[in-house]
Structures
1.
Amino acid sequence: MPDITRRALLGAAAALPLARPALAAWPEQPIRVIVPWNAGGLADIVIRALSGPMSGPLGQPVVIENRPGANGAVGTQAVARANPDGHTLILANAETHAINPLIYPKLPYNPVTDFTPVTLFARGPFALIIRPGLGVEDFAGFLAKVRAEPGKLTFASWGIGSTPHLAMEGLLKQNNLQMLHVPFTGAAPASTAIVSGQVDAMFLNAGPAEAVSRDGKVRILALGASERLSTLPNTPTLAELGQPIEAGNWFGLLGPAKMSPAIAERIAVVVAEQLKPAPMRDIFRTQAAVPTTTTPDEMRKFIADDTARWSSVVKDLNIRLD
């Protein structure tokens, strides 16, 4: 997803004076961003880095509140039911707004009608990692080993229907391969299982993957990014290896339904401006996160397209969770 265009940014900014009555009394209190996962993950780290700089131009503190549970559904539902006054936002990702609606028939929120899109702010590509003792040196060797032992090798994820689960299933389907899925309760226990040799492989956020690979605890075979990362310059992308699969996650902000469009536009402009300075981009780079911003309308379309992309994978796997 390209960075916000200069035309879109200027257009949003130009519209703000016309919406001044809606913004005159906003914000009246701290702006709360609910992160529907545990503290310490990639999404949590980058939004906390961004929240401080956002506070200045908004004139109120931006406070982060972690509210995990049900693959992100607990915190997301809380924002869906919040007052749409612009003081409560959700940090959304592919799981909360593209995948959960496909796998939870009784999801307690509607990802389209219960929210007001604001902006994307980061993309987080995955790295394909394996335990060192697996006995393969590269991606081709990995595919060959999985093919030679159908259904015997294992892969980890942070839950059924999570992005790393579906990304690996997509890779396996494309290559007509089989592995055994071992879901964990989070990225940390899943990656620990790889390091300890309990599980053979997984897709992990590229930043943590790079960190655990430094001392040989895991081997990185490929990146799910559209291009190579500066933190992993010698690691090929899946596209380079002939695998047209985009493996990763995205992170964005949304408000409750009926939140003022003027407020959504104002937040989107502030986020875009705060992502420009080199120190902020360096923070994202060290986490292997790619700054990515959009207008509210662009984000709406992006989520719709992402839902369509995951729909075929979920349908093929016939995943349904109560």
Note: The domain at 126-223 is CATH 3.40.190.10 (D-Maltodextrin-Binding Protein; domain 2).
2.
Amino acid sequence: MSLTPADGAAYWLRWQVFVCAALIALPAAAAAALLPRLRRAAPPPRAADLWVSCWARLHPGWLLGFRAFAFVAAVALLARVLVAHGVAAFYFYTQWTFLLVTIYFAFATAISAHGCWVYSRKNSRKADESHGFLNVDVENHDISNSISGERMKDATNKMVSYYEQIANERRAGFWGRCMQVIYQTSAGATMLTDVTYWGLLVPFFYHDKFGLALFTDGMHSLNVIFLLIDTVLNNMPFPWYRMAFFVFWSCTYVTFQWVLHACGALSWWPYPFLDLSSPGSPLWYLGMAIAHIPCFFLYLLIVKAKHTYFPRMFPHAYIRTV
């Protein structure tokens, strides 16, 4: 007889549950342990890379325009799904991931807008004034030998402050780093969502488990299309170690599902392979855990292909600064 979460302890104290729990906890623990070490070894991201394009002649406003369009379209699609299905739509990993993509484009739109504002205010006069300030200090030092030690120290402090300001401007702040983390988490999650949906659910489970609304809502295509277009246009780095956040994201979703079922708030599994009632459920959990690696590295391969082939195909248009 097949057990369900409604059977209480009999369902949750079987060996399959403990093995599946280990398959959730161990990857999350490994990612949490390795992430700080790998992140310290990587160079800090630059603020300008968040809003400039990798195309030399493309004004940042075009990237802003696309990101704003993608954000509005994603919000409209989410609103449509919420009106049709209510908050129950967020029982599915697809909606979780699409919400994350929407949050990314919200961040990206805001940071691109700020970057365009900075770009519009940047002019040669301001740069010349800063350069002239340094030259004046050097010339005064060379011509006049009567400069006091206190003034020399003050001039040196100003120069140090000037260079520190430039260095700080080139580093991404907290919100910029959040944007990059969401970007890479979304990239892995969209690949996992679309590969699972089109490669597993539609061929084997669609007719039995899913309705036409989920098949036609477009979320399983627009998510990756929006991100791929942004990837073609943006100049952001894509370090592989941020796969850890992708692992955290998926583990959070599965934990969320387990809590709902343990509390009796949900009696059915949004995805058949999450059901713990079958003796083969650990194999499904292991397979989905392993699937995170090729899904993330497939997107990483796309980014590397961009950096490898675009400079050859468009040597005078494409620039790479990351």
Note: Confidence is low (pLDDT under 50) at residues 127-149, 155-168, 209-216.
